[in-house]
């Protein structure tokens, strides 16, 4: 189904942590060479000015996933810049809304290519992103009016309701895309995937836990994998449990957990950081070519001795 079906709600999306070579068809980050051990970096709040680099990290990290061509069945027909541009628009809406309890964090590194003859300043570039849902940390109900499907953020099923354009460096006027039509996406598959994953989150996370801090998105640009940036984001999340008091958790009175849904690619990282697998969710492909699986996971801090970043 390739209609103009609009999707409402964003947040508590599926967790991916994927390494791959970036594509060259979108505005992607220029490789800066091998990252030395102990490379300096900054972990900070995301800003609207970061949106292009956030979108590039997201695109280059998630496009190699087996789930990407399954959902983005028609990407070859409209071109990869369509998904990049429309998801950028969704990120802009998300970053610009201060009312929602949704926090985006980025890791930046020095970009030596930014130094010119007229300046000695080295700018920072975003190479890793994490998005956290704080809506349920105090027993709040999830926001039903969010921008796009809660389970589709990593797969780029945006909910932009307007036409968008971006100047990708070509001469002439930038292309304009009808983002509300979802022209690159097989919506039948996307909605089937969303329903299956939302049901799993509801059953295995939302119902058992009165409160939780949900990690909705984690991605590091492929050029910068292997520097521990994913683990750094997780340590930041663990520190929030101490700030929030850590109480309230499950309906039996346990600690508030960090929660997520992990792909096979992300599972080893989360397991190494102390996350516990709760349930393995299997989704049969509608094209009959196998299945996708994801692991429902939680982390509970047994003590308050967590490093703060």
TrEMBL record:
Domain of life here? Eukaryota
Keyword Chloroplast appears in the UniProt entry: no
User: Is Transferase among the key words of this record?
Assistant: no
Q: Where is the signal peptide?
A: 1-25
Give the record's keywords alphabetically: Signal
Q: Which InterPro entries match?
A: Acyl_CoA_acyltransferase, Trichothecene_AcTrans
Query: By what name is this protein known?
Result: N-acetyltransferase domain-containing protein
Q: Which organism is it from?
A: Cytospora mali
